[in-house]
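Figure 2 data, in text form.
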Amino acid sequence: MSDKNTCPVDHSASGSQPAPHGSGCPVDHTKKPSFLHSLTGANEAKCPVDTNSVNPLNMMPDLAQTMHEGQQTALSTERESSTIPRADQPSDTHKWEYPSPQQFYNALARKNMPAPEEYVDVMVDIHNFLNEGAWNEVLKWESRHECKMPRLIRLQGRPQDLSPLARIYDWRFGVRPFDRHDWFVDRCGKQVRYVIDYYEGEPTNDMPVFNLVVRPAIDDFSSLTDRAKQMWQDAKQKYFPDAKK
């Protein structure tokens, strides 16, 4: 399953498979507005928030809320709650929290990825929007199973590791994802790993577009079965659109 996400400034989204053209942190998109392109200085793209170094109590990096040295504009320290349930809590009412604009800016500065301060709020909106989109795609896969309350255990950023599917797209279309995350989901006691590849799409009305390819990793027979069923459904929809489901 995949999800096409535009910048949350206009919050438009529709399903799409990433032909030649992946919630992700789109903070440095080439061929996009200049403030996004300026973050790389090169063609490497990845999330500035280090998802491999997290506080085990809240599954988020410990990022300072204080202004960074040389920062000119005060940024908000408020953190937005996601819709993603935390697996370290007994109820799905406890959600993950996203980094505040100040924490996001500090993460960028720590990785020497300078960002215009006036655009940090927009970057945070995009970051959060893509993560919500990714979770919605996970829920579509999880709807195949009886568990009514899947929750996110943790996530791992792997921007340098191409997934097998990404290698196929790279070979066939010559495109690579700008980021990759592995999300570990608690399916009522069973841990399931999801792989999420984030691609840049063609801009729409000068707004950035992102394609998320979300699927369970083939770590067990159940995930293999889910993938096979989805491939069959996609094939039927493409070649036999009038057939009964």
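Caption note: The radius of gyration is 18 Å.
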